[in-house]
Amino acid sequence: MAQSLKKGHSKSIGIVVSNIDNQFFSQVINGMESEAYSQGYNVIITQSHESYDLEVQNVNHLTHRAIDGLLISLSTETNSVEHLKKLQKQGLPIVFFDRVSSEIETHKVIVDNFKGAYQATMHLINCGYRHIAHITSSAITSVTSERLSGYKQALNDGGIKINEQYIKYCPHGGMDLNEIEQAVDELLALKTKPDAILTAWDRITTSTLALLHKRKVQIPQDIALLGFTNTLLADVLNPSLSAVQQPAFEIGRKATEMLLSIINSKRPVTEFETVVLPTELFIRSSTDKTYKPDQ
């Protein structure tokens, strides 16, 4: 298998994402396909559904199909990358995007998660919110820790004490609605309820909005909501949703460009780069204290 990997003649690259019905990942894949096709490569897409076992299975399946390289965003369960280290040693080019590992030396494409969460939290503080909760994903992913750090730093800079009761983890990144439901209900049951929530993942954001509506919580009058999401519906939701948006297409395009540069290199690549792209904050009605719903 190692020999077929090194020859690089299949003109196919493998992709592992958590789930393609997530707006963020579908936009990332569009960027990957765009770059791959322009350079004469096909893509094979697999989904981990936030399962470590399925991620390992997908990677093995892809490599048995003699792909020339691998683009991967780790699952929320993945805390060992031995399966990827082994393949890299065999000569398979690998590039990480979004959720990355510090244990493997290779190209990586991420966004400035710290700054995105910091700016979002500071916006809430500047709007006058003081009890700001944070619903995030699995504690072991790079994205979770970076966004949590940005949230905490903004609270510190805003002179607000960090309340650990306001920080809720959803280990499967929003794939399990029960986890988000439990997080929301625990926050609503607190003696001092949050007056704002920052949600850190695409599916957690849209699910939290739906759950608050279901519980007759007025947004933003009772609780403001701001979340990381690439949903195309943020403007037309009720209320329109303040959001941190990621340059998903460009993440996919850039990661593919970097992977193909390794594949097509005449010499072994020993110097690697981590590309950090900026997020963008869109302010809409869900954080506006003056917002009045249409009667």
Cα radius of gyration in angstroms: 20 Å
Distance between the termini: 65 Å
Strands across the major sheet, in which order? 2-1-3-4-5-11
Low-confidence stretches: 1-7
Largest sheet: 6 strands, parallel
| Number of continuous helical runs | 9
What is the name of the CATH class of the largest domain? Alpha Beta
**Class by helix and strand content?**
alpha/beta
Taken from the alpha-carbon principal axes, the silhouette is: elongated
Q: What average pLDDT do the residues reach?
A: 94
* Number of structural domains: 2
Q: What is the H/E order?
A: HEHEHEHEEHEHEHEHEEHEE
How many E-type strands? 12
Strand content: 15-25%
Helix content: 25-40%
Name the CATH superfamily assignment of the largest domain.
Response regulator
Q: What is the CATH topology assignment of the largest domain?
A: Rossmann fold
CATH architecture of the largest domain: 3-Layer(aba) Sandwich
Question: Could you characterize what this model shows?
Answer:
The protein folds into 2 domains: 2-111 and 247-277, Rossmann fold, CATH 3.40.50.2300; 113-245 and 281-287, Response regulator (Rossmann fold), CATH 3.40.50. Residues 1-7 have low confidence and may be disordered. It has 9 helices and 12 strands. It starts with a helix and ends in a 13-residue tail after the last strand. It has helices spanning 2-7, 23-38, 52-64, 82-89, 113-126, 142-157, 177-188, 202-214, 248-263, and strands at 12-17, 42-47, 69-72, 94-97, 108-111, 132-136, 167-169, 196-199, 224-228, 242-245, 274-277, 280-282. With 295 residues, it is α/β, with parallel strands linked by helices.
